[in-house]
Design brief:
This protein has 384 residues and is of the alpha/beta class. It is built from twelve helices and ten strands. It folds into two domains: 217 residues, Uncharacterised protein PF07075, DUF1343 (Rossmann fold), CATH 3.40.50; 124 residues, Alpha-Beta Complex (Aspartate Aminotransferase, domain 1). The chain is globular and about 65 Å long. 51% of the residues are buried. The model has no long low-confidence stretch (mean pLDDT 96).
């Protein structure tokens, strides 16, 4: 059975709260129906609402921008609608952007991982809507990594950022609709109107939904990339390539100064479930070490149910740091902060690794955080 998304249910059944009203649509290339038609075009032609403005997250409304590239204001060439950028100078909708609107509709395929900025955009959209007195409608879509597994630590308040805006674990196990309900409850905002899916079960991976896959980010081309992303994204906080600029981002990890065979042996000896590590060489076309041959590993998923990607990511950091301590470094921002601290929502993991802590010690220190979040999130879950 193919899952029916919130978009398709809205188009089929309508929603009295917004029928005929002027709405702004927060979406990108992943907002599609089963025939691969864009939610922009479908809502503009539906007659159910008056589509008046578009809002684009990271990568833009049509998915044209690379990671980290600020997107400006524009006019959508296909519809002629104004496009407001929510990635760059104004990550939160301004009162001027919301002027004349009667509701905001959110339709983006999330990847189920805290680092992905789409859920930070959702959080800021809900905050702006609450301040403006506008309802938020979330057209729900699957969590591609299932809704059964929660992993990792929670963001500490002082380390909240656009890659971790709320105290969530790294792999949160919720859909965007469920996240919106949790955000509203924990921030004191009005509850969003969630148009739920039909046919999705928490045990479903994306490739079990019958829905077409559209890459949610230029560097997450396949479900395999997303499956490892909760762990291998941590490599972004170092001077090691996470495979950006190759055809296997977040599956290839390496640098010019790494001995692939020694690193693969180290990682294989750790007994991590569901994965294998193959010595590999690659040459990124862009991003870190563009044009340089890198040695490293390709991470192969053997059993995605047994896999704990966050544990793989922590062991990667530990192994890379131990592999070549004279070459390995944490990435620093211009203001002297460390990118890993933003990714992990805390500076303690970095400091503990620098002090000689093992990967297992780090993971053990997080042991109670994921179960605690599951209890927090339980009232906002909508599917079994």
């Amino acid at each position: 059975m193919t899952v029916r998304t919130g978009l398709e249910r809205l188009l089929d059944d309508g929603l009295p709260a917004i029928d005929g009203r002027q709405v702004g649509l927060v979406t990108n290339q992943t907002g599609i129906d089963t025939r691969l038609c864009s939610s922009i075009d479908l809502l503009a032609a539906s007659g159910r609402v008056r589509l008046s403005a578009l809002f684009g997250p990271e990568h833009g409304v049509r998915g044209a921008a690379q990671a980290g590239v600020h997107v400006g204001e524009a006019i959508d060439a296909r519809t002629g609608l104004p496009v407001h950028s929510l990635y760059g100078e104004t990550p939160k909708p301004t009162p001027a952007m919301l002027d004349g609107l009667e509701a905001l509709v959110f339709d983006i395929q999330d990847v189920g991982v805290r680092f992905a900025t789409y859920i930070s955009t959702l959080w800021l959209v809900q905050e702006a809507a609450a301040e403006a007195g506008l309802p938020v409608v979330i057209l729900d879509r699957p969590n591609p990594l299932t809704g059964e597994r929660v992993e990792g630590n929670l963001v500490e308040t002082e380390f909240a950022s656009f890659v971790g805006i709320h105290p969530l674990p790294i792999r949160h196990g919720l859909t965007v609709g469920e996240l919106g309900r949790l955000f509203a409850a924990e921030r004191g905002w009005p509850q969003p109107l969630v148009v739920p899916m039909l046919g999705w079960r928490r045990s479903d991976w994306f490739d079990q939904t019958g829905l077409p896959w559209v890459l949610p980010s230029p560097n997450l081309p396949m479900l395999e990339s997303v499956t490892l992303y909760p762990g291998t994204c941590l490599v972004e906080g170092t001077n090691v390539s996470e495979g950006r600029g190759t055809t296997r981002p977040f599956e290839l990890v390496g640098a010019p100064w790494i001995d692939p065979f020694r690193l693969a042996r180290d990682l294989a000896a750790r007994g991590l479930q569901g994965v294998a590590f193959r010595a590999a060489w690659f040459t990124p076309a862009f991003s870190k070490y563009a044009g340089a041959v890198c040695g490293g590993v390709q991470i192969h998923v053997l059993d995605r149910t047994a896999l704990r990607p966050v544990a793989v990511g922590v062991h990667l950091l530990h192994a890379l740091k131990r592999h070549a301590p004279g070459d390995f470094a944490w990435r620093e921002s211009a203001n002297g902060t460390y990118f890993l601290d933003r990714l992990l929502g805390s500076d303690r993991p970095r400091r503990n690794l620098d002090a000689g802590a093992s990967a297992e010690e780090l993971l053990l220190s997080w042991e109670t955080q994921a179960p605690g979040f599951e209890e927090r999130a339980r009232p906002y879950r909508m599917y079994v």
